[in-house]
Amino acid sequence: AQKITQTQPGMFVQEKEAVTLDCTYDTSDQSYGLFWYKQPSSGEMIFLIYQGSYDEQNATEGRYSLNFQKARKSANLVISASQLGDSAMYFCAMREADGYNKLIFGAGTRLAVHP
Amino acid sequence: GAVVSQHPSWVICKSGTSVKIECRSLDFQATTMFWYRQFPKQSLMLMATSNEGSKATYEQGVEKDKFLINHASLTLSTLTVTSAHPEDSSFYICSASGQAQREHYEQYFGPGTRLTVT
Lengths: 115, 118
Description:
The structure holds 2 protein chains of 2 kinds.
Chain A: E1 3-5, E2 10-14, E3 19-21, E4 24-26, E5 33-39, E6 46-52, E7 60-61, E8 64-69, E9 74-79, E10 88-95, E11 103-105, E12 109-114
Parallel strand pairs in A: 2-12
Antiparallel strand pairs in A: 1-4, 3-9, 5-6, 5-10, 7-8, 8-9, 10-11, 10-12
Chain B: E1 4-7, E2 10-13, E3 19-25, E4 32-38, E5 45-51, E6 57-58, E7 67-73, E8 76-81, E9 90-97, E10 108-109, E11 113-117
Parallel strand pairs in B: 2-11
Antiparallel strand pairs in B: 1-3, 3-8, 4-5, 4-9, 5-6, 7-8, 9-10, 9-11
């Protein structure tokens, strides 16, 4: 069965510093996709970054980058130059290869950025 | 980018009544819509997947007679919580994806509906 694990319930970082949020996954599929979403206190889910299992380069989107280590089955999110507005819940998710593109979510990590 | 709306954004209802939540894709045709439930301080749990014009596929443990899903058009899906009870109080989020989305069939999420059953 497919599974996403986020082992850090909470993290804090100083403003302008970089922070890494961990995510490991388990799947027997060869083709899969990994996502990171941000959920502020308002509840909306904000898409941050995507990594396909066949992508050779690590994905980057502005201050977000994904450290994809396929052999280790990890897909850590790196946020550079943290801002106060980055304080939120962060969810790692994997797309199932079931034809419906369902997403399985990890438990989430709450990030607090301190001034 | 693609926009998904939900209505209402929050609702309070009495135990035993039914509540309908709408999910609309505003600028694209959503061939598939997903309904999630999120309890406080927890992750999103998929409840069901619906394709336009066909019956929804429910996840294990989700009562299909209690959570009625109708995906009547390519832009609208509804979730009806029937005979709601306090334990149904939660944050309900829909998402939508269509063939026209980016290559990885990204899901676009609605803003969520907070349901409180008294």
